[in-house]
Amino acid sequence: MLIAAGVLSWMILWMNRQAKTIRSDIQEKIDKIITQQEKAGIFLLVFFSVAREGAELALLLYANYVGTVEETGILIGLLTNFMGFIVGLIVASVLAFLLFKTTRRLNMKKFFQLTSVILIIFAAGLLAHGLHELFEFLEITNSPLANLFIWSEVWNVNDTFIGDILQFFFGWSYDPLKPGRFEKSVIGGIIVGLFGWNDNPALIEVVAYMLYYIFIILIIQQIKPSIKEREQQTKAH
Q1: What is the C-alpha separation between 190 and 202, in angstroms, rounded?
Q2: What is the pLDDT of residues 55-71, one digit of tens each?
Q3: Cys-Cys with 33: which of 37, 41, 74, 136 at CB 3.0–4.6 Å?
Q4: Total domains, the chain
């Protein structure tokens, strides 16, 4: 989960850097390959582009599966992740078809901005949930590190009025053996896998979750000036 969060963060920053120039960069590479009649070049460009995305997809699906299966069980974990994959594939296929059929140009900047927001939320969840699993590992191995104050519980949503609201709306999906825990319900398990939800997060989870947003936003803000400078240099040349 922590590795997946790192990969996602790198991809988010990369997307923000390349949002305005990726179309022209790819077109330039393709034009150069076609001009030089390098068939292998076209094959390699497509192959590595797809292979990279496939590797990222496999890593993220596995991390999401690990996060979901511990809360909902293997069967539901596999089912929800498979359904999510199929729905995502259908949506992507429909969008691609509409784009090619209507010959509309996709605004890459807005597209990357939207997907970046979704990925940031997902990556923050992976980070928090990864730390939660680390704590459970320390507990299981009886490590003295598990007694550090950073692992102390901040709150337990099930003991508040929010827990009563969740019970009212999603009680039907609760695990009969653990009826008082939202994260052990079907709906809760899905949210755990997607956003790193935890009914009773530790201090380090909450701090890391919040700091991740601050960190990623600050980095993105630093990227914007460098992009503008690069564009101005390109226009000057």
Answers
A1: 20
A2: 888 888 888 788 777 76
A3: 41
A4: 1
